[in-house]
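Aim 2 progress. For nicotinamidase, the working sequence is reproduced below.
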Amino acid sequence: MKKALIIVDVQNDFCEGGALAVPGANEIIPYINLLMEENEYDQIVLTQDWHPADHKSFASNNGKKVGESIILGGVPQFMWPDHCIQGTFGAEFHKDLNRDKVTHIIQKGKNTEIDAYSGFQDNNHFMKTGLDDFLKYHDIQLLEIVGLAMDYCVKFTCTDAVANGYVTCLHFNGTRAVNVKPDNGRDAIYEMIQKGVTILG
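Predicted structure tokens for this construct:
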């Protein structure tokens, strides 16, 4: 069974000191590097939040406060601080992430009108990113997933992976939750398990 490692959004804005820093984010980078060093993956894919500056998920572009919600593209949208803007330092991958073995990069969130948490598609399931096509082309059947943040982009990437027919495993030590609400991370784990994601210690 061919397997791929999907590394979700390990970017400066989600790491320590970033515009949308996930608590403990930097702690997962050595773990991810070790996975790549100690395991043989047929493909290693990075996903990258890649927003235009006028993206509608940013509170600043809607006259809203961070934490409020609007309806965007027909689905509820949490209002985020400006983050991972195309071409900025914040959108770059963290310098400590070893990219020597990376075979492919998927950029998401490029459409101003709709956000994209999942590495597979946007939040209203209208536009695919090309990740599924890439994996199917390379006969990948098993996905191991790590990255940021567990309760948003990682969760939706995992559940979409299951929906697309992959055996899907999340490395618990390779992810952290942003926990906008204190229980978001815990709830994300329950939701992923219910949808068929295997959680690896």
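The CA atoms of residues 146 and 174 lie 5 Å apart. This observation will guide construct design in the next reporting period.
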